[in-house]
Write a structure and sequence with these properties.
single chain, mainly alpha, Amino acid/polyamine transporter I, two-stranded antiparallel sheet, 22 helices, 1% strand, globular
């Protein structure tokens, strides 16, 4: 199979999905461009900020993409290219896009509130508390995994000068991105420049940052040193106004990701790589069956619960018009699916992951090989691609830290409670700095095991969150009189996938207790988090399914049988 054909299939399928399925959902779910959005209704200059759809698309895309849509398909390619391709395309159109769009619609229609608030509204206070606790625990896992990835990609490496210089360049450029983003944010807020002018400035800053980064790499800090710096940065990024850092940084990084995707597409088109992987290699890799592990390994790029948090916790508060929701949420998801397809072509061209190479290095190596055809410097190509991947891992941390902070604060907030009755401990937990610090302390402890040891827990809990987000959207749609059938099948499938995966993971970690391989900071903490996440997931799923399919109210009663017999329409 030729890589160009797979790329074309991906582009055509995702485009058709957006035009037909996405637009159909928009009509069925009552998107109303004339309705005033929460960004205007509750504008506060911190979280509620009306934002241009292009800038917000950049924020959404940069926040949800990260390194995961590259890592997942490359790792999962051991099952063969066909299962990966099908899951990325069908998952993106019928699962991930539905979840992201539905989460944003539900939030915007409910004053920009999170899915936790929506669950409380339709399932009660206990459901809300459980969901927010789940979100908070999940965010800690994400912070631990991605903070370690960033620190490793920045830190110097003993006895490896080439990798130290490459990592140092990435570190310098990423630090400059932060500085430039702050300046761009203040400039944009004060002068309100036209979008075209803002775009030119962003591209110039991007080129300057990369040029300085390549010429002046920071090589004096190892992984441990960068780990401290990364967590300090997360602390600041999660509490400052979105316009001062989060939006402009994601906007800058969106151009870097667009460059990476464009370079990959051009490289594939000119190089015509052959897929040196069988369509299906095996149904079990290392004892891990295609079900459920394929669907957990590939999260971002198909469906990812983290996306629902971005859609409903940050982006929904910045939507200027409801008509922008499809582009920002569903559109960003499908572009991410395209990135996953590109990653599949990359690993396929190499016949699998080269021995000793990481998924990121595999991706960069393949694109550099493609661009050799047009005589682009091989080392420069690899450096730029590695830089893009690392920059987006850091960008994901910006968003997830803020989401963790908001989830923790909301967990201790009752909108109906009188201010005078709020006790000192509850007031402390509502404080943004305290909420961030306690989150990061736990995240730092979990990160000490290394991201490879956390990845299975990250994937399982991420997909569990997807199942819960889809159930929340389904309940919202049903209770508000809208058609929720498009959400039922994705919700039930993701529940089956994630409960299976998390059960197997918990059993595996439990079996290490008392053995020489058991380390509490690795298997022990993961087992504790895994058990809590599993129990909370069971409780929320039970209440959601009960509300959806076994409601005693005959006027709104929905039976399970149509779900089992129905199809995605």
């Amino acid at each position: 199979m030729n890589g160009v054909l797979i790329l074309i299939i991906g582009i055509v399928a995702l485009s058709l999905g957006y035009v037909f399925y996405g637009q159909r959902l928009s009509k069925k779910w009552g998107v109303d461009p004339s309705r005033k959005t929460p960004a205007f209704e509750f504008e506060d200059g911190v979280d509620y900020v009306p934002t241009d759809s292009n800038v917000l698309f950049g924020h959404q895309f940069a926040s949800i993409a990260g390194a995961a849509p590259i890592i997942g398909p490359i790792v999962a390619s051991s099952y063969g290219w066909l299962p990966v391709l099908l899951w990325c395309l069908l998952g993106g159109i019928f699962f991930g896009g539905v979840q992201d769009f539905g989460s944003m619609v539900a939030s915007v229609k409910n004053e920009g509130h999170s899915l936790g608030f929506i669950i409380k509204k339709y399932l009660g206070s206990t459901g809300k508390a459980l969901f927010l606790l789940f979100c908070w625990l999940f965010c800690i896992v994400v912070i631990a995994a991605f903070a370690n990835i960033v620190a490793v990609s920045f830190g110097s490496v003993a006895n490896n000068t080439a990798l130290t210089l490459s990592n140092g360049s990435t570190a310098t450029t990423s630090c400059l991105f932060i500085v430039f983003a702050v300046g761009l944010g203040f400039f944009s807020r004060k002068y309100r420049p036209k979008q075209s002018i803002l775009t030119v400035i962003a591209i110039v800053l991007l080129v300057v940052a990369m040029t300085i980064g390549l010429k002046a790499p920071i090589t004096s800090l190892d992984v441990h040193g960068w780990s401290y710096i990364v967590f300090v940065y997360i602390l600041i990024a999660s509490i400052v106004p979105v316009w001062s850092l989060l939006q402009p940084r994601d906007y800058l990084n969106s151009f870097l990701l667009i460059f990476m995707i464009a370079a990959a597409v051009i490289g594939i088109l000119v190089a015509h790589p052959t897929m040196s992987l069988p369509a299906v290699t095996t149904f079990s890799v290392g004892g891990k069956g295609m079900f459920p592990y394929l669907f957990v390994t590939i999260a971002c790029g198909a469906v990812s619960g983290f996306h629902a948090l971005v859609s409903s916790n940050t982006s929904s508060k910045q939507i200027k018009s409801e008509k922008d929701m499809l582009k920002v949420s569903y559109g960003a998801m499908l572009v991410e699916s395209l990135l996953a397809v590109i990653a599949l072509v990359c690993v396929g061209s190499l016949g699998g992951m080269p021995e000793g190479a990481s998924a990121q290095q595999t991706f960069a190596m393949a694109i550099a090989n493609f661009l050799d055809v047009i005589n682009m410097n091989h080392n420069l190509s690899m450096t730029l691609i590695n830089l893009a991947i690392s920059a987006f891992a850091l960008t994901s941390l910006d968003s997830v830290a803020r989401i963790a902070r908001l989830s923790f604060q909301e967990l201790f907030t009752d909108e109906e409670q009188e201010a005078a009755s709020v006790g000192p401990i509850q007031k402390l937990c509502q404080n943004s700095v305290f909420a961030t610090v306690i989150t990061l302390v736990l995240g730092y402890a979990l990160s000490k095991g290394g991201y490879l040891n956390i990845w299975a827990l990250f994937g399982s809990s991420n997909q569990m969150l997807s199942a819960l987000a889809l159930s929340a959207v389904a309940v919202y749609l049903k209770k508000s009189g809208k058609d929720s059938k498009n959400v039922w099948i994705p919700m039930l499938i993701m529940m089956a996938v994630t409960f299976s995966a998390l059960t197997l993971l918990n059993i595996s970690n439990f079996q290490t207790i008392g053995t020489d391989s058991f380390v509490f900071a690795k298997q022990g903490l993961q087992l504790i988090f895994g058990i809590f996440i599993f129990i909370i997931g069971i409780m929320i799923s039970y209440n959601s399914i009960k509300s959806l399919f076994f409601n005693d109210d005959e006027s709104t009663k929905t039976k399970l049988q149509p779900v089992l017999e129905g199809e995605l329409d």
